[in-house]
Write a structure and sequence with these properties.
232 residues, alpha/beta, 7-stranded parallel β-sheet, 7 strands
Amino acid sequence: MPVAIITGASKGLGRALAEALAARGWDLVLDARTPEVLDETARALEPYGTRVAALPGDVTDAGHRAALVAQAWRFGGVDLLVSNASALGAEPLVRLEELPLEGLRRALEVNAVAALGLVQEALPLLRAAAAGAVIAVSSDAAAEPYETWGGYGASKAALDHLAAVLAVEEPGLRVWAVDPGDMATDLYAAAVPDDDGPRPAPDSVVPAFLRLLDERPASGRYGAPALLEGRR
């Protein structure tokens, strides 16, 4: 069975993607910071009958990243690495003049530095896979200048660029940066708690990610809404 590592997998998009892959027979190595929530997610996947390893920890910890890859190796390798763990930098979001520099450092560390560190750790196994792929979960804030989203957007823009360069340096892999679009997630609620407008559930965009895995288009940046509409 193919093996995927998914960070930020205890809820939201990470959990929805984990469930979709488990339904397809994938073995999974899941990461999140809250053990109780991550364990509940792992239990919810048991009916699919695949192997699921839930490793709580912080992706900024090099030892934790090594443990994720070591577990995937015990499952047989790494066919897919999904960097979904994210930090906002401030909760709720604030204008740049108020953004704590430590918060910006945290966003960059989680969203870009740790994502690259995990890729570095997993590269030998990704290269050995028959169809190795990396998905970097991006944001429209990486490309659009939304007020108060500067720190988070900068960290996701850095992630996008790392993914683009990785694709050039590793032509044997597929490397996709994916903007999932607006979703109803805890992350968004923490970012803008006063905005209670309706948004799509995370599982509604999962078919866009599955399309990438099924069709394996060229490495690059993709928007989930376009993929769902049949466009690229």
